[in-house]
Amino acid sequence: MYFLKDSHNTPSEYVYLFVFLYYFPVIFGFYLGRDLRRVSFLFWLFFMAGLIAVEAWLILKLFDRYAVLGTNEAYLSGKAISLFGPENPLSLVMNGAVGVMIVYFLVVAFFYRRSEKKKLAGR
Asked: How far is CA 80 from CA 2, 27, 77, in A?
């Protein structure tokens, strides 16, 4: 997440980055996952396992860059502040947000399963 000193992006490049490298893959992935689930649960499961494996590999490969906060010089000299350490003033917010996201996911999954069971019982 560090940029070279002389790097710059135009507004149209930012639009491209967000639309084609973020929003489009998210929307496409959602619909692809939905369609794969209709075709075969096993195929969907293997596809999801592959995506999780790729994400885990990316995190392992790039974690040292994403886990610190500082200038490019601070990163290269090893003096950048850890995002998760107590010296980072936002560490409580960031670590708390991860916990909130996990709890939120579990609550949504619970209520979704509960509503699906009610739909099946009502048939």
From this structure: 11, 34, 8
pTM: 0.54
Based on the number of CB atoms within 10 Å of its own CB, is 68 exposed (0-12), middle (13-18) or buried (19 or more)? buried
Q: Sorting pLDDT into bands at 50, 70 and 90, what band is 103? A: very high
Nearest to 70 by CA among 79, 80, 78: 80
Identify the three-state secondary structure at position 81.
strand
Give the C-alpha distances (Å, rounded to integers) separating 6 from 2, 3, 14, 60: 12, 8, 16, 28
Runs of H (alpha helix) within 1-123: 11-18, 24-39, 41-66, 72-77, 91-122
Question: Are 36 and 43 within 8 A, CB to CB?
Answer: yes
